[in-house]
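Support reply, case 0932

Customer input (verbatim):
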Amino acid sequence: MKLLLIDPPFKSFAGIFSLYFPLGLTYLAGAAKKAGFDCKILDMDAAEPKEGSLNYSREYEHYSNYVTSINDAGHPTWQLMRRLVVDQKPDFIGITALTTKFGSVIQTARFCREILPDVPIIVGGAHASTMPDLTASIPEVDYVLRGESDETLPDLLNALTNKGDLSKVGSLTWKKAGKIVHNPDAPFTQNLDSLPLPDRQALLNPEHYSSEDMGIMLTSRGCPFRCSYCFHMWERRVRFRSVASVIEEIEQVYREFGTTQFSLKDDSFTVRRSHVLSLCEALKKLPFKITFNCTTRVDLLDDELLTIMKDAGLAQLSVGIESGSSSILKQTDKDITHAQILKAAAMLNRHHIFWTGYFMIGLPTETEEDINKTIDFLRCARPYYAGLGVYNPFPRTKLFDQGVQMGLLDPNPPLEHFLNTNPKDLFFKDPKKRVLKIDHQKFLELSESASQKFHRHNSNLFNLIRRGFARRRAYMYDPALLKRDFGRGLEFLGLGSLLK
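Our regenerated output:
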């Protein structure tokens, strides 16, 4: 029996370069393969060569293209998807759902049912977990899997294949006698080493991924912190893979794809110091050299740890800064201070580590002064790269619930709303009223100004050079990364036309 897992198109519709890799689907492909199913992954943003803008300062405008495209049934991307789905001849279709691209999820299900009317359609992912009733209300969707699906997906596939009892499949939302039924939650997998390694060989169009893409992986699952904008699917518990399992995956990816640059996508990589130290020691013993990047928190770093990580191959590190305003930073519940941020920034700059700081504006109670403080704080922290996002509310988070109480958000929009609304506006009752204390036009001006200042910071020649210098080891091991990053640098400088 054949399973086709689909990651719906999103960045390709918006005209933005996709930095995304469907790691979750490769885990599910490994689990399905272990259960005896033939599985392929169709990542629609990689179904064609990855192209698009790297200037995220106009992301909102790009998303308007997305809305137009997903509603155009004759769009070339939808035509391509129909053809690729039919070519695979699947017995089951699984679709992963993120909130920002839920409109594309809806259309993917509709087009799959249109071309393969008898094939069961399963939807999982973060949005399916936060809004299972809404997801199950899509007429073409037969089954919804909530939460972690490494074990429940094979259970469901076996039940469907053998006409088993669906009521015994944990975390399943399904339709029975015209009503939506929610089975009890399945427990999380406690021993992550018991799960198969991600099956990257299941990816269709592997030539459209770089070796660095193939190096995206996890060494743990979960985060113990309480950030108010995060959906805590794993209930603030962290489970760790053994160092031996992580090394096994690194060796496999190196052997199969020649990857030497790895991205460790743990929510907070350095949350357990002993785990990091043991892994770094093992990395240094590999018979080949690698570099890696990771994400963590400013209060989980120190000079000794950075020295050890850098010696083991650390090339890039990302941290959340969020806001330059003390009052707004407090509302994020990150439980960090600006003093801690600046201390970590100084350490990272002193160690010459390419680091990214993520900032956010547009929280419900933010003022013009708060936004200006965030822009000013960028100059104080001096990250090699600074990401700026306008706050986007997600269900089952503390800030989302507060937004509902303030009258800003609608917690139950209808399905069609996701097809006709900019992904940045999905839950707002009035997109022109995102914050309480700043009128719409002024907020647009502040957002545009902040975006342009962040883009100028990122495209500054000095920052481009120091980012390149920090990645020099990665370039030595994989010259193709140098070529790709050089092209990105030209685009940042407004010289992208030279590549053509």
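We compared this against your earlier run and they match. Two observations from our side: The mean pLDDT is 93. The first helix runs from residue 11 to 14. Please reopen the case if you see a mismatch on your end.
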